[in-house]
Batch of 3 targets.
Target 1
Amino acid sequence: MRQPRVTPIPLDPRVCDCCGEQSLESLWNYDHEAVTISDRWLFRVRNVICPECGFVFTPPVLNGAELLRYYGDSFTRFEGQSLDYDIEKRLCVIEQFIAGRELFVEVGSNLMSSFQDQLTALFEQVLTHEPNQSADSSCDGIDSIADDSVDGIAHYFVLEHVPDIAGFLREMNRVLRSGGIMICEVPLLSLYEDYISPLILHEHVNHFTQDTLACIAAKQGFELLHSSQEKCSRPFGFVSVFRKSSPVQVSVPKEYERNKAQFNNGKRQADLYFQRMHSARELVTQSDDPIIIWAANETSNRLLEGVIPRENVCVIDSSSGKKDFFSGRCAVLQPNAARKQIAKAEYIILCTQRHAPTILQNLETEYGKSFEESRIRIIDRL
């Protein structure tokens, strides 16, 4: 079988965004192939820590223009799924800190949801921008928004993906009115031991603490008003609220020892995840029993990396857009098209922990299929 083309994402040089240090300490390096709608991409991930301030990031960094092409071709998140964030927490922070009610902008909005619907009740105009071409956007890009025109702007779990933090924040500052508010949610490094997804997701080029984010933002003209874990809409992150001001120099954090330990604690948990992945891969490659793998996503892509599944293995996903997810290595069936495979299956590998209980319940109620606990494998990067 002809192997699909793999596009390596070019790398650009980078120094520490927090303190400018160029001599950096390596933490964890790996390569990963990611799948999008029409392509396969090679990510070369090089995690380092700055010995001066403790900021953890990836240099050389993935090229921003190529990353936009990658995100533009990516599969839409949340399609047919319940949202994985707390809408009320987002709205609470917005209502508490944003006084102006004319224009609100959300960057990285993905699919429209009841969150955006409720925003329209708070603001005269709501604009959204999402580089994923299969998602929803109401504006072409932040560069299309006029200077000093926005009351509030929010980006939820976006900044960890951004290779040029300074350039991104300058654009946020440009469009905000004087005294305008920026709301930012990102994963929190100290929680990686409990939630490994932010650590092992190949797209993440920044790993923040509350102090490193505040320091970087201050240099681009943002005054910190509030920062907390409690008001964050997802359990593995924190929310910081900033007011547009003038760029200032602030004291550089000294977090090297703490951040290195926290990163390594997360890495140990990631190693356990990869052990579970290895065990599931052995089952797929060595067992002759019928097996169903549920969810075509990055986890199942890792599971089947370098593997061409045999006839006893069937991959199932509820999204019709995932049928060619594996670029010809194997088909992805929707549940109703896989009734025979579901009925015969002796094992199920669930590549989504959050939806695992619902999937197992639906299999029992809709298809009359249940599995003994010893025949269920759950592998996910939570």
Note: The chain has a mean pLDDT of 92.
Target 2
Amino acid sequence: MLELFKKLTTLPEIESFIQGASSDTDIEARENSNIEYKEANQKFSNTNEIGKDVSAFANSEGGLIFYGVKCDPSDPTKPQAITGLDAKNIETFDRVVNSSIHYPVNGLKKKLIPDHNPQVMLVYVPQSDESPHQNAGDNKYYVRLGSESKPMPHYLVELYFGKRRRPKLNIRFDHFLQPTLQSFHDDNFSPHCPLHLGLTNSGRAIAKYIRAVFIFPGDYIKNLKLVTDGTHHVFEIFPHMHLISDLNPLGHKVWEYTANNEVIHPGTEVSVARFQFRFDRALLLESDTEGNNPIFEWTTYAEGMERQTGKVILSSLFNPSSIHRVINN
């Protein structure tokens, strides 16, 4: 359909195209699952039809809509003639497409033929990777069935939602060497350990309006703080990280990462923070204690993404080559 959209650039070319359907020499030019004709020589009285047809094509295989072409009353699938385009309908189309289809359809193209005093508005609607798109005019989802735009059955809406591309944000961290018991301080806590956190997008869509919450229980770790390179203030390096412990009734340290003006593309990663902390030796000596007391818990959010959650225990932070058996003397 995109090639046909590019090919049709003049009124004679469009007239030739629709005449092929009128004479039955080109059955593919009739209204079908990929082509729709609309009269538009008078101001649109039902703007819901715009959102209905555009969303239906996007939710199906894509297609072309010819605004300014009349169909044969005795055969509604057969284009009959170019009847012209009311200039006000151009603005109306743009307004409806930009405000009444959720999510917006990416890759939609439009051209006026001819450029001056246009008689036809030709619209190309691609098959969308973000379907299903909803027509906000009546809050329904549409699909092309033959030459008509019909409401989607409920099972089909569920199927399309299952296929929609979405972001998926998970936590990534750098491993560090497991401290030896001999290195622990007199307070039974370890030396300072590094914790570099990042966010990775393993989904198929760009992550927007990103938020991540990190909860550090206070029972078995202490001296948790953000660290820098020594030449910059901590919030110059990590401007999106904020301590919100005061909001937590349990007294845990809670950090929040919020980035409303940045995105994470699929298959990429951003650095979130560099912490240092000390942990209680009980986490090394007692496996039940370690399993029941994660170093931190995390939750990630992004537009269009189901919330992701997880817990990270101490041993998962260690470089595997440095893990050694600990004996409590």
Note: The radius of gyration is 30 Å.
Target 3
Amino acid sequence: MPAVEHNKLLSKLATTPYNLYINSIFGSVTIANANNTAFVSPNIDTFYTYGILDIRYEPVVITIPPIEENRYFSIQLLDIFTNANYLGSVSNRTEGKYIVAREDWNGTVPIGIKGVVRVPTSVVLALGRIQVFDPYSDNDTIAANLTKAASFPVQTLSNFTGDAPPYDYVALNWDNSTINYSSIAEDADVEKFFQIFNYIIQYQLLSDTDKKVLKGFEALHLGANVSFNKADFTADEWTEIKEGAKEAKIDLLKAPSKLAGGWTISPDNTANWGEDYVLRALAAWFGIYGNTKEEARYFISRTDEQGNAYNGSSSNYTITFASEPSVKYFWSLTLYKPNNFFYDNTIGRYGIRSIDNITKDTNGSFTLYIQHEKPSDDKVNNWIPAPDDNFHLAFRLYGAIGDNDLPIAVKSD
């Protein structure tokens, strides 16, 4: 699933209406909103930048500009299975020029290069996050300027050294089909799912374990650039394939979770999945492109203190904090609909951030109000609008310090 879901964003970026140039990085100067559906569970804290790095033939060089020390930024370099390496604040790969190369590259590092980042893929998604200090106005021009393509220049290594390119370039092809995971047992979705997998997997440098696992699926015609068509299977075989896909989705939902005080915590191996096939598939479904624990910790809550699913049509909720969570950079609490996208509401608010004008008591404690109807004026600053339907909550802590025990939402009516 992560490879197919990953291809979904790559293909969107590379085709109409985005038409992103290969080996370039560009961004958006708006915080994600209810219209953003490029990938699930976006944040409300940063500008995003996007880039597709084609290193099939040679590495690329990315230039990181000067950025204030107190502004979090990262460029998450993702492989096909959504494992990540980084340039940015936490990795201490800041101002300078960096080579991004395949793990098997053994070329010479030229003068002027500050470091080399190796990735197990030939096609890299460069997903950037730039902290925004003032999301409600145009005052944060520094963050806005960093989303421009010229801010993070990308060039091939041969262009950097002034040498002739060591290849005849062949363009990448993309399949921008959208898979309907809610109906994965339907013929068209199952067939397209595995066709996309067989295409995109050619760009991943597989581990020995990955190769062994994939070899076990040869009878199902799974593998790099292998033809996968319904017509190649008997009716009974196709029924078994569909049932297997359906059961796999059910089994994913049964995967064990790490809990703390009612919150599900992001796994310690987030974005360093290795061969943890279940967790990386689950993450791709509910919150693809999560950061490593060094960059950020994620906490998810789907039920109140009584174990009942959150629902804005039947209940109001509150979360009371004795103090703000302890972080180096920032925190936010975001509300998502069951499909992992934002709830479109009249005030355009999808959560509460540490930079927001939160109403606090004199001792520093504060209460957040999560409900469908607008609360009284004295509570509006701390209100997170909820749909008249089910929803869930996501807490992000960037540069988390300590364990940060989080309170759980309780019914307030």
Note: Residues 117 and 131 are 23 Å apart (CA to CA).
